[in-house]
Amino acid sequence: MTISALPLKITGLFVILVLSLSGGLLPLKLKNKNYSLIPISEAFAAGIFLAGGLIHLLHHSAEGLSSATDYPLAYLIAVCTVTLLLVIDKSKKKRKDVEMSDHVSEQPKDKSKSKSKAKSKSKDKEKPVTKEHHHNHDHSQIGTTIKELAKQESISGKVLAIILLLALIIHSALEGISFALVEESEAVVIFIAIIAHKFSAAFALGVAFVKSFGKHWKIFVVSIIIFSLATPIGITIGFGIESYNSNTMINTFLAAAAGSFIYCGIMELNESFDGKNHHKKVIAFILGVVIMACLAINESHSHDDSDDHDDH
């Protein structure tokens, strides 16, 4: 890491921390507001991540690891990272689907209970002695069932929020590591990619925890702090890795970060294009890709200039 890149990375560490905390804690104050710009910023972040992962990080990692082996190791590491994040994300979605199917399956049961209740009422008219007993028994059963369902939904929502937190922590840590390991020109690229989505990701996590944990604000605050510290901790780990000056280790982590960027870009692209403002989202996505492509041109020129200087 060059000396000129160090101030940028240290400044970036604190900027990322502030963005994460502000985005994560905002849902506590503004629970029911409409944020129309967030999907557009997510589409922009998708372009940044996808192009940044493919054009910058994966390319840089593949070049660095090619000296150690002829096997396309960087691409394998990137694929493994994508697979890991996919498994975590799918487990979250699968649990959510199970929750929805269970909720739907309860509706016919409720209808059948209401019908049986109506029949029991008609019978109770004929048998007034047993009317009070059956009436109380039915209400206590229904009340217990509703409480159990509410408890199950609450637990499921909490698990989903924790899985989301885990996935974002892994991705954020890899972001931080990659930011610490790259040179100054690439650090600008990674920094843009991180801040492009950090606020919206923190906000989404905050909303998930507000919905799931509600009154347990201490759990909410601790979770947001853990998420906010993930990237700065990743940056610190990256500084430690770089101090070993191991080219193979550095490029291995960059390949993992590339996989994380690619996955995040695809997921952001898939989710942000739903709903309104479709054309604006497409433009934002293309703009993100163009920015990364232009920065790659500038980066290649700077590398050529440094090579020419070394030859002289």
Automatic annotation (TrEMBL):
Q: Which Pfam families does the entry link to? A: Zip
Major subcellular site: membrane
List keywords of the entry alphabetically. Answer: Membrane, Transmembrane, Transmembrane helix
Q: Which GO terms describe its cellular component?
A: membrane
What residue spans carry the region label Disordered? 97-143
List, as start-end ranges, the regions of compositional bias called Basic and acidic residues. Answer: 97-113, 121-131
Tell me what topology the record assigns in the membrane: Multi-pass membrane protein
* Coiled-coil annotated residue ranges, if any: none
Q: Which domain of life is it from?
A: Eukaryota
Subcellular locations according to the entry? Membrane
Annotated InterPro entries:
ZIP (IPR003689)
**Which chain regions cross the lipid bilayer?**
6-28, 40-59, 71-88, 159-182, 188-210, 217-241, 253-270, 282-298
Q: Keyword Metal-binding on this protein?
A: no
**A molecular-function term among this protein's GO annotations:** zinc ion transmembrane transporter activity
* Protein name in UniProt: Zinc transporter zip1
